[in-house]
Design brief:
This protein has 604 residues and is mostly helical. Strand 18 (410-413) and strand 19 form a beta hairpin. The termini are far apart.
């Protein structure tokens, strides 16, 4: 009875929550909010250019700049495609040419492999693909060639040494000039292993170099092979030994974008095996981590809840659920997360659901985008005006509490709204972009596939701008159609690609057997078995032929002896010998019909 009453109360509360009258928004009102967001971006962007460039980030309280992730002029690259999304093509063109003047990223500095990939590689690829729309003069061969694409590939090449491990999972840090630093820890978070396939896959498809996509897939498959018996992943893993060092499972910090990239990588690169991985992983998440539409932390070994926490990074999950078609589950969790925002005006980094309060020393809000990201995705799917209300809440909170004369500042404490002297680059790359797209329903990013453009390439004509943009985890959009523009596979390559997909698709439920780059290993095993069978068959035929020759010799000898005993004329034994030699020659000729028979047999 108590459980029944609790259920009825829950249903009543849910009905009350969703029976209230929400504000109604006509197009003019929505566009007014869009322009307010544009003003927010302009204030923050201009403050960075005037006070912080060429440093990585703006310090909005002291009005100066600081290098944080690698002395890349990070905010400039991270914000570049946002200029295109907002239609500021003049500034986009200016910055595009400014960034293009850089030859490479050769520098003796240690950088985060994860952050460099999502912000630098992802930002450059997206800006490269936006160049045509922004009216930038294009290099011949675009989108398969261009200065920003070459820069993205240079950055990715400098990250590749991190993946040179026995498991294929990468170290967390790399030196841009010398590779993995001496003494670098082999402990990497789950997201730091599984968040490369969108950028690396796109890079491979645009440049024709398969090493990037294969590297990212090898890391994902290695991670997949280490999941627990109940289908959960820990938080940190030793990339050399393949052993978990932190066994708490969740969907938040240290894990989040791994799940995200299984969905997005599957869609962008047409790799259904990644979707199989996500679906099986989500089943485990729902079974062990989901409690009343919250997602808690639990032991990856037995699923027992260890931390009843909501982390602000987890707010991406409802938006991702909308991508796989589960709108209802997404809305339910988003409602919970928005209630936390309403409680404080922001979402603190950690929120203890059991206590109904922000966790001690984790009350900050560094202008994160995850909540508005999910709101944008779900509004695009449902057009529910409640989601616009939620977006307005976020816009007003940031404008009221995070604004400074030199930009927008990290909220140090969501309860007191005190500020910290930092504006991370993702504020312009993600938070403002998602807000803008929420209030700009006709933006080209939302194209449902009703329009497109034709582009001539060295490989022929291809379709671009047909919608279906995939955002990387730093909100850098990729046009999937552009990837097809640059594929020019030979007949042999097409057969290999079909074979690779068939191996994964014939028995997708057995993907738990993945170990590293499994498909090539399977094909090698098949080739080896065929060759062994072929050699064994030839050897058997050769032995049978020799046995037949011996029988003929014995029969001839018996006839010769019989003729001698009967006093008949002696048979010319020389002719018999010549016939026998011809028989052995035929056996040798059979072996010559299989090239390099002896070498193959010896190697096998």
């Amino acid at each position: 009875m108590p459980r029944l009453l609790s259920l009825l109360c829950g249903i009543q509360c849910w009905m009350l929550c969703f029976s209230v009258t929400f504000n109604q928004y006509d197009k003019e009102k929505i566009l007014q909010y869009r322009e307010e967001v544009r003003g927010m971006f302009t204030h923050a962007y201009d403050s960075y250019i005037n006070h912080a460039y060429p440093y990585d980030e703006l310090r909005p309280l002291s009005c100066d700049g600081v290098d944080t992730w690698g002395s890349y002029s990070l905010t400039l690259i991270d914000a570049l495609d946002t200029l295109a999304v907002m239609g500021n093509h003049t500034e986009f063109s200016r910055v595009y040419h400014l960034v293009s003047q850089r030859d490479n990223f050769d520098a003796n500095i240690n950088v985060s492999v994860f952050e460099t990939n999502i912000r630098i590689v992802g930002g450059l690829i997206s800006a490269h693909l936006m160049a045509k729309r922004a009216g930038v003069p294009l290099e011949e061969g675009w989108p398969c060639a261009g200065p920003l694409l070459r820069l993205a590939e240079d950055a990715a090449e400098r990250l590749l040494p991190a993946f040179d491990t026995p498991t294929g999972m990468p170290y967390g840090t790399v030196n841009l000039r010398h590779g993995v630093p001496e003494g670098e820890t082999s402990i990497t978070c789950t997201a730091g292993v599984g968040t490369f396939v969108v950028e690396f896959g796109t890079l491979s498809r645009l440049t024709g170099n398969p090493v990037y996509e294969k590297t990212a897939l090898r890391a994902i498959r290695a991670l997949w092979s280490t999941r627990s018996k109940i289908g959960l992943y820990g938080n940190h893993i030793d990339v050399v030994k393949g052993r978990w060092t932190a066994v708490e499972a969740g969907i938040g910090a240290g894990v989040d974008s791994f799940y995200e990239y299984l969905v997005k990588g599957s869609t962008l690169l047409d790799r259904p095996e990644l979707r199989v991985m996500f679906d099986e992983s989500r089943d485990a998440v729902d079974h062990y981590l989901r409690k009343d539409d919250w997602y808690f932390w639990a032991s990856m070994k037995n699923g027992q809840i260890t931390l009843p926490l909501f982390q602000s990074l987890e707010a991406f999950w409802p938006g991702m659920l909308s991508m796989v078609g589960d709108i209802e589950a997404g809305l339910k969790s988003l409602h919970n997360y928005h209630q936390v925002w309403k409680q404080y005006g922001f979402t603190p980094e950690f929120y203890n659901v059991a206590q109904g309060a922000a966790s001690v020393n984790r009350e900050g809000y560094p202008l994160r985008p995850e909540l508005i990201e999910s709101i944008m995705y779900l509004y695009r799917a449902t057009r529910d005006p409640w989601l616009l209300d939620a977006g307005v809440d976020i816009l007003k909170s940031i404008q009221y509490s995070a604004y400074t004369p030199c930009g927008y500042a990290t909220v140090k404490n969501a309860k007191t709204h005190t500020l910290d002297n930092r504006m991370e680059s993702f504020f312009l790359a993600e938070t403002v972009k998602y807000l803008y797209l929420l209030f700009d329903p006709d933006n080209f990013i939302h194209n449902p596939g009703t329009s497109a453009t034709i582009h001539e390439t060295p490989h022929g004509r291809c379709v671009l701008d047909a919608g279906g943009y995939i955002f990387n985890t730093e909100a850098h959009p990729v046009d999937p159609a552009a990837l097809a523009c640059c594929s020019e596979l030979s007949e042999h390559e097409i057969k290999d690609e079909i074979a690779n997909h068939l191996v994964d698709l014939l028995n997708p439920t057995k993907t738990n057997n993945f170990r590293g780059d499994l498909v090539p290993e399977r094909l090698k095993d098949i080739d080896k078995k065929i060759m062994v069978a072929k050699v064994e068959k030839i050897e058997k035929e050769r032995l049978l032929f020799r046995e037949k020759l011996n029988e003929i010799k014995k029969e001839l000898q018996r006839e010769e002896m019989k003729e001698q005993e009967e006093g008949e004329e002696v048979v010319n034994t020389t002719e018999i010998s010549e016939e026998s030699d011809d028989g052995v020659g035929q056996a040798d000729q059979i072996t010559e019909e299989v090239p390099e028979f002896s070498q193959q047999k010896q190697s096998l």
